[in-house]
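HAD family hydrolase
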Amino acid sequence: MIQLLASDIDGTLLDSDRFLSARTLQAFNKANQLPVILISARMPQAMYYLQDALKRREMPIVCYNGALVLDQQKQLYSTTIPYIDIENIARIAMEHDLHCSLYRNDEWFVPQMDYWADREVNNTRVTPQVQNIETTLAYFKETQQLGGAHKIMLMGDSDAMDSAFAKAGNLPSQLHLYRSKDTYTEISPLEISKKSALELLIKECFPEVKVENVAAFGDNYNDVEMIAGVGHGVAVDNARDEVKAVANYHTGHHKKDGVAQWIEKFI
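Predicted structure tokens:
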């Protein structure tokens, strides 16, 4: 018996137009008796419009790979990257001419509207605040009482990213560096995961739900623990081999409505 559906977004739930296909919307509408939790590296605003499309806006969400868990406007959990690490990562990004995006709650700061920022705007339908990195660092330093960054994202040339990734990995810090693509590195607090965030959310909001009755969908390295940790872990066809290795089920490619295919068959 499935009691709850949890899904990653990019590379899992969205179609080639970076939105929810008609088939996907129909499948979730058919499963309208089930809670649906979006669980992603995205910021909150980049998830709300998808909740609206799914008619699940009242549902909690897991943002920033688990660094921020929200139930409407209530924070169920929040942990951030401290300022010293923000500054060190930003300096490494500048040294290697990489785009550095900084995120906290509903805030997204970029140093300029370059190719990488434009790409993320297109992908997420969120507009960032544009200001030079020194101004952003000063802002984070002055507002440390609000916490640090929920996520840092570096984007740029893959060879430069190789060097920056190695250098950032040698910092004396408690950070998790995740290379989502050759040209992307996402940086989060070390202690977070989608699995732990989902478990906390279920405990707080759906205490009647058992983890063995949860179906979770994913495609990338940051989904591995979640897929392995639920009773019905589902890997889309384009998923990393590491995700497929721990999944209970394999379904179609995300561009061919893989999540919808599974829901149609099992719900």
